[in-house]
Amino acid sequence: MNFDLTEEQKDIIRAAREFAEKEFPNISQECDREEKPPKHLWEMACKLGFVGVFIPEAYGGQGLGYLEHCLINEEFWRVDPGIAHFILAGTFGSEMILLFGTEEQKKKWIPPLVQAKAITGAAITEPDAGSDVSSVRTTAILDGNEYVINGTKTFITGGTIANYLQVLCLTEPHIESPHDRFSVITVETDRKGFEATKLRNKLGLRASDTAEISFNDVRVPKENLIGTPGRGFHQFMVFFDHTRLHVCAEAVGLAQGALEQAIEHVRKRIQFRKPLASFQVTQFKIAEMATRIEAGRNLYQKAAWLLDQGRVESHLIAMAKWFTAEVAVRVAEESLQLHGGYGFIGDYNIERFYRDSKIVEIYEGTKEIEKIIIARALLGRY
Amino acid sequence: MDFELTNRQKQIRMAAREFAEGELAPIGKECEEKRDYPREIIKKAAQLGFVGVFIKKEYGGLGLGTMEHVIILEEFWRAEPGFGQIFSQTTFGADELLLFGTEEQKKKYLPPLVKGDWVMGFAITEPEAGSDPASATTRAERVGDEYVINGNKVMISNGTEAKFLLVYCLTHPEETSKSKRHSILIVETDRPGYKADRILGKMGLHASDTANIYFNNVKVPQENLVGKEGNGFIQLMKFLDYSRVMVAGDGVGLAQGALEQAVNYSKKRKQFGKAIASFQATQFKIAEMATLVETARNLTYKACWAIDRGNPDTQLSSMAKWWACNVAVRVVDEALQLHGGYGYLDDYPIERYYRAAKLLEIYEGTKEIQKLAIGRRILGIT
User: Fold this and answer.
1) Which of 206-265 (A) contact B at CB < 8 A?
2) Share of chain B above pLDDT 90, in %
3) What integer best gives the mean pLDDT of chain A?
4) Which of A171, B89, B193, B234 could covalently link to B218 via disulfide, CB atoms 3.0 to 4.6 Å apart?
5) Cβ-Cβ contacts under 8 Å for B268 (sequence gap 6 or more)
6) Would the pLDDT of A73 be above 90?
7) Interface mutation target, options A313, A322, A379, chain B, most CBs of B under 10 Å
């Protein structure tokens, strides 16, 4: 065993931290308040090579692993989860093309993502299909050489700013198994009949764009099909084994940031004539937070390392996803508590981190879904 | 990074598992009931090479690492915590000799341990000195070429069975610093004035030997000093970096065993016409238990790795100790709960595991002491 990162990985961490610490803090409150994605930072991050490091060199990326992508996520989220999410979600959905797309599709849709020329996304969730993915009702009907798409999807990251989305569509409604009825189709957002409405007033991650999108007879060429007709559900399950990992890194980064804010505050804050840090109860809280983060980081890095070795261990990824997400929520909460009343006021970052944290227990598979995946691996299917 | 065990480590695990399942598990209940200290099993395990693998070859060991020792302990605790404890304490203190002993001491005291001829112990705790070892009052006075020891210690592993003990003695009561007052001496238990009373009222781990011990003018030669006079406290703290990780391994093993029993039981047990494994409440419990065990194992292995590369990490050792032992207690509680009323009876092993687990959160530094160690280190408080 070797728990050390390589020198290259350490360099990536240093560079990502430096960039985030220099660029995010000045605008993080404004981006949160005004629900404004800072596009210029995304462009800078692409230029500096932080976006899509896991993309093979043949498609403009750096050909690094998913672990490296996670390390960047961790560092960005440590400084500001909202901005970090906006910048790094720009390649969210590209995994589907990389995993299942044709050479032509990869050449067409992947390079612009790292060149700051395009943003992509994955559109799965619908008003009545959240954890229950196979209840998706957005239909794609083949008409000659085109698919005609109709339906509505919601909570779509990047919905109003993305250039193309990988959309999970019902294409074979007649098939008996509900898992074999879907296909993934890339839809360019400038096509006629596509409409996106920004969802405002999210609890957190307000710098990042989330939208409801609707398809009204949107026509896309047959070549926009990613993978195999009828395999969409299965393709997304493989996709999630990748994308859940960067959510783990988001969670660990957020927790690390919240812990550091707590440490800084308890050292400075004097009550009963002593710094809060001198009270045992504070020391215990800090110890528990730090241990949880350490446990979460080891767990997700193990899963990411295995994935980069070509070994996809779904139940381990599911473990890492719920555990790290819960760590983020608990650590953010404890950190706010240590800030006392000040934590409840927007002057301190912890208020924003607290709001930002909750989503990691929800998106990319709720913690409940993750636990079902783990239990199936251990108990079998019931 | 590399999260994989080496082939040799995997082989050691398989061999330890085979031995533990074949030889230890079948007689666990009987030894617990009879409070039988199974000398012959220790001898057998030693012959098979499971005892003291971390001891260097020149002192009769295999010269392997803490990792390999922990893997063996994990497997023994998984199969039968009572024996796990017996093996944990067989060489308990050997690291102190390896770290601070003279060449003569190592040559004399270590090889018989590896052969299974002797067992040892480390006597620190006193009635009024538990978490606060610097308050130990067992006195060792230098008289000529000898130390004369008076006092008593409690809850000492192998107090009646050990051939020799390392004893934490007060040698410099005049020192102003509490951490400079103690020294560690080797005391052979056949010396006149040494007396041990085995404790029979323990909650669990009945087969292992725990005793109150008394020193009445016990004389040992000055060559029995381990390390430096007045340096006992510092040497003890260094030792704990090692021993705490081993206890973490104990916790991982116990938790793994309890988890597997819960999995097996919930697949077999039918209520409301279905296996209880088919209920979501069960599935969620199992998923949570398995995730916790996974985090505990990774954290423990990381702490082992730090030791084996020559960089024991006090903070990481404390994190692993607290976390893994807390996981053991939580997991065994859920496992017993899943067994329902049967779990409360000794028909199933889980009742024995449940009683054994609690000690893990107490000895080798209570969880409270671990949290203080972690919290103070992070906050820079001495």
Assistant:
1) 263
2) 99
3) 97
4) B193
5) B275
6) yes
7) A379
All structural domains of chain B: 7-115 (1.10.540.10), 120-228 (2.40.110.10), 234-379 (1.20.140.10)
Is the pLDDT score of B309 beyond 80? yes
pLDDT tens-digit series, residues A15-72: 999 999 999 999 999 999 999 999 999 999 999 999 999 999 999 999 999 999 999 9
Residue indicated by tokens 């043949």: A58
Partner-chain contact B290 A305, CB within 8 Å: no
A296 near B CB under 8 A: yes
**Residue A301 to residue B1, Cβ atoms within 8 A:** yes
- Say what the pLDDT of residue A347 is: 85
Mean pLDDT of B160-167: 98
Name the percent of chain A lying above pLDDT 70: 100
Q: What is the mean pLDDT of residues B277-289?
A: 98
pLDDT score, position B37: 86
Average of per-residue pLDDT across A208-237? 98
The contacts of residue A275 (CB under 8 Å, 6+ apart) are A266, A267, A268, A269
DSSP-based helix, strand, coil % in chain B, nearest 5: 55, 15, 25
Which of A12, A265, A276, A283 should one mutate to test binding to chain B, selecting the residue with the greatest count of B CBs within 10 A? A283
- Is a pLDDT exceeding 80 seen at residue B382? no
Measured between CA atoms, how close is B378 to chain A, in angstroms?
A: 8
Which residues of chain A have a CB within 8 Å of the CB of B379?
263, 266-267, 277, 282-283, 286
Contact across the interface for B379 and A288, Cβ inside 8 Å = no
- Complex prediction ipTM: 0.93
Q: Which domains does chain A have, with CATH numbers?
A: 7-114 (1.10.540.10), 120-230 (2.40.110.10), 234-379 (1.20.140.10)
pLDDT tier at B38, thresholds 50, 70, 90 = confident
Stretch B48-71: mean pLDDT: 97
**Could you tell me if A13 lies within 8 Å of chain B, comparing CB atoms?**
no
Cβ-nearest to A298 among B275, B299, B375 = B299
B positions 286-325 inside 8 Å of A (CB): 286-288, 290-291, 294-296, 298-299, 301-302, 305-306, 316, 318-319, 322-323
Q: What is the pLDDT of residues A101-136, one digit of tens each?
A: 999 999 999 999 999 999 999 999 999 999 999 999
Query: What mean pLDDT comes out for the span A191-211?
Result: 97
Q: Dump strand ranges (E) for chain B.
A: 120-123, 139-143, 146-157, 164-170, 182-188, 194-198, 210-221, 225-226, 270-271, 274-275
Does the CB of B281 have a partner CB in chain A at under 8 Å? Answer: no
> What 3-state DSSP class applies to B313?
coil
A368 counts as catalytic: no
A350 reaches B (C-beta below 8 A) = no
Q: Which pLDDT does position A89 carry in this prediction? A: 97
For residue B187, pLDDT beyond 80: yes
What pTM does this model have?
A: 0.95
